[in-house]
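Annex B. Sample input.
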Amino acid sequence: MPDLIELLREVITLTSNVNELKEQVTRLTERVENNTERIIRLEAREELLVEKAKSAYAATQSQFNVQLIERIVHLEQSQKQLPPDTNF
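Annex B, continued. Sample output.
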């Protein structure tokens, strides 16, 4: 009979341990799902930031090109207004 009681205690202990493990697995599963959602949001945010950076770069490059062309035009106009150099 003592063996049966000991066996019953072991079964109760194992059942308790299994229930605790189930709870831990459930919590871990929820955390993994939450992290997966966060990763998806971060990847989407990263893609948006890359697109914004590309757009900002293109706008800056365009502005720089316009300024450069304006300076070239100004220099050409200034050069035309200079008297011809007679030393050559």
